[in-house]
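Before relying on records like the one below, remember that each one covers exactly one chain. Contacts with other chains, cofactors or solvent are not represented anywhere in the record.
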Amino acid sequence: MRILIVQISTLGDVVHALPVISDVRREFPKLAIDWCIDEKYAAIPRLHPAIDRVLPVPTQRWRQHLFSPASWREMRDFRLTLRAVDYDAVLDLQGTLYSALLARQACGPACGYDAAAAHNRLAARFYDATFIIPKIVHPVERKRWLAAAVLELPLETPLDYGINAAPLTADWLPAQPYVVFLSAACHNDKLWPEAYWIELGQALQARGNTIVLPAKTEEERTRAASIAAAIDNAIMAPPLGIEAMAGLLVGAAGIIGKISPLLHLAAALQRPAVSLLADSDAPTDGILSAAPFRNLGGQGTIPDVHAVLNAFLTCTRP
């Protein structure tokens, strides 16, 4: 028996799909599981020992060179790869038109959300079987419930993302415990005030922690550098790939950040974490973890430094 998981992107949604793999493996120990995913995020499912094959999709390259003969040859070859294996079920956990079309190319019954539940109503037209899954629940639960409906899995099972990573080894990392600050956000209106980060960092540094700030874009690095400059011994992390970032998060004493894909990854790696919500709702947008965690704030509510510090100390208490 073999199934195919279709979850192409984004990083946060890919992380949210991981518990499905653990649920399936728990109920069907000998079942083979393949995963169709954007090549940018292929490192994530490879961290899960239950995945047999990862099928990377060069989505960005295809879109950038849509009329290139080379792209069309790649698409044809990828379709042949999908159809080379007979699947007992193809689960589209993403629910977009693009993911539904990919799921349809595989050799096996395509299963997904019904029109009212899918991210794109048109996606439901390409499934052989559709299922009504509530939208107003955490994305992790939506994906688990869909898999449970398709494969008749029990619903009341422990949350298990099933991944781990080796702690990052780097000469710039401190010998003492470190806390990762994920100070970037998808939109500027979701940023926690810079002064708050500095005050929090100083409080944690006084308790024997080094603050490490990773950042990706130039704007994010400028902001992170400004925060690091005001905290004794704080470290600006160099640019890191997904695997190295996972190693950085695993080795941390804890993680604090604006809600982001990397914070979801930290939760999946079972590290103590505090998420800062501004215009989001914790039931659907916050982190969900088997490790100690807290979602603070919400619609129009910004948590203060005292609340975040207390939450973090509670999560990391031995």
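The radius of gyration is 20 Å.
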